[in-house]
Every structure is written in structure tokens, then in C-alpha cells.
Amino acid sequence: MNTINQDVIDQLWNEACELAEKEQYIVTLKSRKKSPVIEITNDYIRLQLENGNSDAKIRKDHFVSVLGTLNDKKKIQQRDTKGTEERYVLGLMSMMPYFERKVTGATPNYFITLRDELIQKLLVNKV
User: Which keywords belong to this entry (predicted)?
Assistant: First the structure.
């Protein structure tokens, strides 16, 4: 199993929060929905969901979970995630320069991969 250097995780999370604050919304991986950002803390990004009656908190641990799966598998799709929050993490990653959103196939498959410059930054330690 691979783990990611905590400094890299913290840097990516801080940049994700800065991006969410700047853009004031996060898209889904398929870019079909935009959810407004309503609160940002060191621990989470809170979004107003499309129906307007509920919200979702993207917690840092959701981000770390998705990043870990991506680090292990080298790509991640929505079906590899557990819930709404992790699905929005994929959308957030698609907005960041370290990650690349890709679409393949006649019936589109959407997924996120690491860009080469991030792969170089991930200081992977074998556990």
C-alpha cells in the first residue's frame, strides 16, 4: 500500500480551498452541475446542492481518500467513490492544475488522472 507525503496532502488541500474560494462554485466531474460554495474552513468546503434544500461538506478526509485511490490506481472514476462528497472532490480536482479530467468511449466514461508534474511531487513511501 502507498501513502502520500502529508506535506503534499496539506499543500493540495490548501490550494483546493483557495480555488473554491476564488471560483465560488465546484462542478461535478461530468460538468453537468455547479454547486455554490457557502463556507470554507481548514477542515471542509461546504456546498449548496442543486435542489437548494441541502448542502454537502467536502471534508479534508474525503479529499485524502480520493487522492489515495488515485495514487494507487493512477486514475479514478465516479464509481470508485463512496458518496456525494467524494464525487464533488472529483469535480474539484478537475478544476485544479495537478489533475486532468479525461473522457473516453462512445458512451462517455469520465475520470481523473494525475498530471506528470504532480506525480513527481508525490513522495510515495511504502508502508
Answer: Plasmid
H-helix segments, the chain: 6-23, 60-73, 84-94, 116-121
- Alpha-carbon distances, residue 86 vs 10, 39, 124 (angstroms): 17, 17, 22
Nearest CA to 92 among 55, 67, 118, 72? 67
Question: Percentage of the chain with pLDDT > 70?
Answer: 90
| CA-CA-CA-CA torsion sign (118, 123, 126, 127) | negative
Report which of 66, 51, 57 is spatially closest to residue 26, judged by C-alpha positions.
Answer: 57
pLDDT at 101 over 60: yes
